[in-house]
Design brief:
With 281 residues, the protein is α+β, with helices and mostly antiparallel strands. Strands 2-9-5-4-3 form a five-stranded mixed beta sheet. Strands 1-7-8-6 form a four-stranded antiparallel beta sheet. Bound molecules: zinc ion (ZN). The site of zinc ion has 7 residues, from loops.
Length: 281
Amino acid sequence: MPELPDLFYIRNYLRTHVRDQSISSAEVKNPIVLRVAVEGTFEELMRNQSIQDCHVHGPFLRLECSGKIDLVMNLMLAGKLQHQQQHEKTVGHLCFSLLLKDGSRLNLCDEQKMAKAYVVRQGEYAAIPKYREKGVDIMSSGFTLPAFIELAGRHTRKQVRVFLNDHTILSSIGNAYADEILFDAQIHPKTFVSKLTQQQIERLHQSILSVMKWGIEQVNTASQPIHIKVRDHMKVRNKKDQPCPRCGTKIRREGVRGYDVFFCPKCQSPTRKSFIDWNPA
Ligand SMILES: [Zn+2]
């Protein structure tokens, strides 16, 4: 699943390479991903539009088109957006393709066919499930420590990993960065929000900001094609049995509410009362 750093990278790429280009034609290979909330077919609606801008909204990418129409995409688990040059192959099961004036294509590929692409009138997003339930934007100036403390206070019964992952609370943190954030903050993923100390909450807020910033920098530096998910910089995610970069203990994988979670059992110990020395000598 693309996460915020991936989506920002895709957004910036599209702004640089695709913005202001018109769409010569649209081709649908697998209509299962499409939801058209405007009268007309996808092919008719997209033809001759030009892509004016791209935005990130929670897990969604929103492409603003010239005819007051938006193409809103949620790539879900395995969906990939590909900017395909004429000599290149598609990167998987092709769902639809937009042929651009310069001869390149913007493709949505998804082996699992779980991705969704909505065609809606600009500003009319009611037809898109979960679009309007977006939580606090963690990249905005509104994501302050007092705002975070207030959110935590409203969700004390949740496990911290579940709390971080809930897009209706925080917009948005996926599985990979949630693991990295908790590792950075040295908090066990199953800790209940109610059990976090004030200092842990402060540290968690800092970790969200710093880990996402780091992720954005890492994905930018890697500078890969937009269909590639850059994960090489991860410290604990998918690192089961590898040494913790902080203490050398083997990274553990466990399930939290059906999701795989990776953490260091020593740095993120559940047994210690507090990770912070309250009474330094
Ligand atoms: Zn460790």
